[in-house]
Design brief:
The chain has about 120 residues and is of the alpha+beta class. It is built from 4 helices and 6 strands; from the N terminus they run H-H-E-H-E-E-E-H-E-E. It has a domain of about 80 residues. Helices cover about 25% and strands about 20% of the residues. The strands form 2 sheets. The protein has a 3-stranded antiparallel sheet, with helices on one face. A hairpin with a 2-residue loop joins strand 3 and strand 4. The longest helix has 10 residues. The two termini are about 25 Å apart. The N terminus is likely disordered.
Amino acid sequence: MYRKPSQTLLGSALLATLAMSLPATSQATSTTPSAMQQHSVTATDRASQPRILGGVELGGYCKSIGYWGVVLVQHNAYGWKCHKASKRVGIDMVRACRWQYNNPHALAAHRSRSDPYSWYCFLN
């Protein structure tokens, strides 16, 4: 589904920042020769790591459930509300992720409680 860049909450710069902040697949934790040996990633390793889907497009989600759009009422991760006239309701971010990525297994998380733009969707 095509979305105008102005409609997304997490722009490409923020998504790039999120991707750069993800932990590496494997890292040596000491400088001993045995710790410096190359670690091969197994299917089990990959399966245990969450797969990042991307950001959350809250305006579209709010419209899909009958509201006019989204508004930020407090500058924190939980400050987003769907609104219609003077009515404002909290947003279930998991449902927003499942709607956006059309995946019943999608989950939501934020990187910082104080950052309203830190939400992202992932698969476990």
